[in-house]
Amino acid sequence: MNWNKNLDELLGIAKKAGEAILEIYNSDDFGVEVKGDDSPLTKADKMANEIICSGLLDLFPEIPIISEENKQIPYSVRSKYPHFWLVDPLDGTKEFIKRNGDFTVNIALIQNNVVIGGIVYTPVTEDLYYAYRNAGAFHVNGGTKTPLASKPFHLNDIGLRVVCSRSHLNEDTQHFVDGLNQPNLVSRGSSLKFLILASGDAELYPRLAPTMEWDTAAAQIILEEAGGKVINEETGQPLIYNKEVLRNPYFVAYAKVQE
Fold first, then answer.
1. Which residues of the chain fall short of a pLDDT of 70?
2. In terms of Cα–Cα distance, which of 45, 52, 46, 44 is closest to 12?
């Protein structure tokens, strides 16, 4: 595939999914169900998933799709994928249900277990973020395209801005925060937590709690191309994808940390 050649169509798919999400968001019926893992599922998740999957298959029928809302593919099959799309059609369903605007559409391209391209769209604010490996990260709103650059910092700086989930602030995360020098906490939901770092508006995002691969991939490449990194808390290595179990290890996302 040619990312640059098809970028407008890819961004259009994300925006179309976002428009469908907003239709439900502004309605009186979210159609909330509870999945097997006790997480919520709405009409918006389903509609966005259908739009994204059909749009990607129309453009690239040869590239498989792994989505949170599709039937999961056996590892024996997907382990042989040289590349695939990794999709979260509505990241932040809990935030969607709360109507606080902190939810996104996430579309990532994975190659050989590494994320190489990503698109994140915020339906309420109409902010588009995208990146491709070694080609930079960008923010688009209202026709204005701006390169993204995360902020340089040292871990012992005073008053670092630490992004924490609205829904997940546990003991391990609190311990991490307590080790910093007078940090300031910033509360956001969904993959917006990565984008705040990529935009230069915060320095750290510790996620010492479970996430799935589709929660992080698209935003990870955007942060990386903006100068940041997303590191496995145990190994010190970047997150990888298409593992046998599609659950991420605990990780910490950094803006442009200085050694």
1. 36-38, 165-169
2. 52
